Give the backbone structure.
Amino acid sequence: MKSNPELIHPAWLRLTHWVNVIAVFMLVTSGWRIYNASPIFDFAFPPAITLGGWLGGALLWHFFAMWILLANGLLYLSLNIVFGRLKRKFFPLSPRQILQDFLAVFKGQLAHDDLRYYNAPQKLAYLFIIVDIAVLIMSGLVIWKPVQFPLLRELMGDYDNARIVHFVAMASLLAVVLVHIAMVALVPRTFMLMIRGR
Amino acid sequence: MIKATKFQLLDPSAIVKDAMHELPNPARRIFMKRALTLGGLSMLSGCTLTDEKSIEQALMKVSRFNDEVQAWLFDPNRLAPTYPESMITRPFPFNAYYGREDVPEVDGDSFRLEISGLVADRHAWSLDELYRLPQTSQVTRHICVEGWSAIGKWGGVNFATFLRRIGADLSAKYVGFKCADDYYTSIDMPTALHAQTLLTFTYDGNTLPPEYGYPMKLRMPTKLGYKNPKHINAIYVTNNYPGGYWEDKGYNWFAGS
């Protein structure tokens, strides 16, 4: 056995990843409870899988966890930029590469033996999560403070529409996370990688 | 399509039902107990949070911190959007912590608005006196903490004008309200002095109907619905945090839009 394999995920990355998991978990489950108070669509979430017990409790959790999401997200982004990791890991990302890799997925040929490198669907998925969380924060700001953020409000198409954007961004995030978890289950080494970094 | 769902959303009976659903027990100090259950997850894992009290305190502390952040974000000169009358939501939803049948009946002739606290002139106001103050109206969006919103037209006196008229200490921290339906709430002075904060006596051009808060409602498009008290009996100016009906149950106090 090799004594000390190369460190692939630095400690700050693993930390921000798991803090993000906790924050998103609290925000999504409390968000469902808030949604239930006045559903946008023709369904409600089963109360048993929500956080907060009632609307007021869910709001307390939501407006607590938002600070964790925001601070952690800013830390993740700035460290990624400072250490040049964002550029190194995610770019270049060409449409052709994405297409090729997706075709490989369907042929069952997508190579994933060198965990130092992200394949194109991975790059795309992780970049999507970054952008999607930014959309969640911006639409959330409009729902929370429609008067104080007029530019964002116009961007989101007024208050009622911001709720729909917030919901769709949440659903999209969960869809990508589900695929992410399925992929981790297929390549379990990546799970240990996000814990030990090696 | 969205329009259709919106109408469903604003079905008054559904909203009341929902409000009642949120309030199964009037004297409930148990809300935090429920707030701390992670739904079925805690049952699955067979463990409950052991130190509920400290988690409750932490969440409330963050809520107080959020009050301060909101006070800092609040720009006294920034106006809430106004809308054309064609966009008014009809019918405008009834919303209270009780059903329509429990709306208080207030006798306008004998009504007197009580004034107390840090004010120079504490005389009680009759409705006629209040109606003689300069009146204005605006069409703004009412946003409920539950998430729905509705556009309405309220008319009355600019609240800053009223506070100056009664010689209120404008450097005080809070303005508190007591209502005929036993509701109570309080707001920060900067919001009380905001140009769009109105002490209203009319809805959509007519005398405020009982369901919407006769004889008067404080209307602030810069705050969530539950900060806008109806059936106001008494107004007071104070430096001691007065809380509020929902705020004391865990809703955020500042609740600014």
